[in-house]
Amino acid sequence: MAAKATTVLPLIVAIAATLAGPCRAQPPAPSQPIVLITADEAKRPRQPEADLAFRAGISRGPAINLLTPTAAPAAVQSPVHLELKFMAHGGAKIDKSSFKLTDVVVPAVDLTDRVKSFTKADGIDVPAAEIPPGIYTIHAEIKDSDGRSGSLTFTLNVAKP
């Protein structure tokens, strides 16, 4: 019986490994910093200072509020705790799949995939975002279940360590 068990066990292990499939990448643990903006992206030309807000009357679209860093636009140190809060209005729900986060440079850098694992229906919470020293204009957009959109443009001033 012992000989039969020793020949079957490797076969079971091989089948289990095949069924498990390839290892999937896990989102970073909360304590591990993620690179939000790379050093090469930080060197791109910034958009000229302008009012990026769109004003077309009263909107019932969702609101986005910057919770942290609370010092913005004052200088902060990297890694930065980045937290945004989403609020829907009029009984609508936030469509978290519509969230977009962009570094406003030429050409623009889509940061959405970098924070996707930190996105929830009520906002994003990135405990440690690595950002090179510099001044960055970040644009966030979200839609609600009624298709209405809301946005927020904010400045991050990351100081040299």
Could you walk me through the main structural features you see in this protein, from its secondary elements to its overall organization?
With 161 residues, the protein is an alpha+beta fold. It has a single domain (27-158), classed as Immunoglobulin-like, CATH 2.60.40. It is 17% helix and 38% strand. It contains 3 helices and 10 strands. The protein has helices at residues 2-20, 39-42, 112-115; strands at 34-35, 63-68, 75-76, 80-87, 94-103, 109-110, 119-120, 123-130, 134-144, 149-158. The strands form 2 sheets. Strands 1, 2, 4, 7 and 8 form a 5-stranded mixed beta sheet that branches. Strands 3-10-9-5-6 form a 5-stranded mixed beta sheet. A hairpin with a 5-residue loop joins strand 5 and strand 6 (109-110). The longest helix is centred in the first third of the chain and has 19 residues, at 2-20. The model is unreliable at 8-30 (pLDDT under 50).
Structural descriptors:
five-stranded mixed sheet, Immunoglobulin-like, 161 residues, 10 strands, single chain
What's the CATH C level?
Mainly Beta
Shape: globular
What are the segments in which pLDDT stays under 50 over at least 5 consecutive residues?
A: 8-30
> What pattern of helices and strands is seen along the backbone?
HEHEEEEEHEEEE
Largest beta-sheet details: 5 strands, mixed
Radius of gyration: 22 Å
Please give a quick description of this structure.
With 161 residues, the protein is an alpha+beta fold. The chain is built from three helices and ten strands; from the N terminus they run H-E-H-E-E-E-E-E-H-E-E-E-E. It has one domain (27-158): Immunoglobulins (Immunoglobulin-like, Sandwich).
